[in-house]
């Protein structure tokens, strides 16, 4: 929930994962070093995957309020100062969910990028899901 500055109404996010990805995308395009995002268990798992795959520099989970927050330090190329995350795209949306079996899981840029999948074994990359023979909901692509 966010307070609208024009009225005293509250805006509800219908898709918190899209909000999470958009905040990262906007911060990296603007050249910010750190982005702060409202926390949830799914967002924490996606953050861990982004760190393990080398797309972000570091992260910190803060449980200071009811919901808590995630602080993510974005990663940039040393020489060109370009963000490491070139594109981060939501695949499965609330209006149209995208599911894939373990044999149909996508390969992003012929293996150069990752697809994050929510399976019955937890949130993981499509490569890990193929190894564990688990399908699920394809959340996003990162490259």
Automatic annotation (TrEMBL):
Matching Gene3D superfamilies: 3.30.1370.30, 3.30.1490.10
| Keyword annotations of the record | Ribonucleoprotein, Ribosomal protein, RNA-binding, rRNA-binding
**Keyword Cell inner membrane among record annotations:** no
Task: List the Gene Ontology MF annotations in alphabetical order.
Answer: rRNA binding; structural constituent of ribosome
- Return the GO cellular component terms, semicolon-separated: cytoplasm; ribonucleoprotein complex; ribosome
Q: Report the InterPro entries cross-referenced here.
A: Ribosomal_uS8 (IPR000630), Ribosomal_uS8_CS (IPR047863), Ribosomal_uS8_sf (IPR035987)
State the name under which the record lists this protein. Answer: Small ribosomal subunit protein uS8
Gene name of the encoded protein: rpsH
